[in-house]
Write a structure and sequence with these properties.
alpha+beta, 5 strands, 24% helix
């Protein structure tokens, strides 16, 4: 993530120097934050707290005491955000599911 920010900052500086404009980079399409808290890895993705979704959302939880906590925010069958605590190894998969907006509904009718 840091290298993406550095690359984008350099791109902005170069464009400004040349008097050109640039588009927002793909790496800024999704909110993502990674930190450590009480020595646990904490990853926040997208609308991790259901921001702006009103009551139109569901929360899916998985918790393994002392190991991991996974909260997924779903709306209309699509993943909108997630909180991952511990070494879940799910951040990249969840990031792609949020960005792709794939329908993850379990009640889809097959054609």
């Amino acid at each position: 993530f840091r290298s993406q920010m550095g690359w984008y900052a350099a791109k902005c500086i170069a464009a400004d120097t040349l008097g050109e404009s640039i588009e927002m980079d793909f790496c800024f399409e999704l909110f993502a934050h990674v930190t450590k808290f009480f020595n646990y890895k904490v990853v926040l993705l997208g609308k991790y707290n259901a921001q702006g979704l009103g009551t139109n959302h569901d929360l899916l939880l998985r918790c393994t005491k002392g190991h991991e906590y996974v909260k997924v925010v779903m709306s209309n069958g699509r993943m909108m955000g997630a909180v991952l605590i511990g070494e879940t190894n799910l951040e990249e998969t969840f990031e792609n599911l949020i960005l792709n907006q794939m329908d993850l509904s379990t009640d889809r009718k097959s054609t």
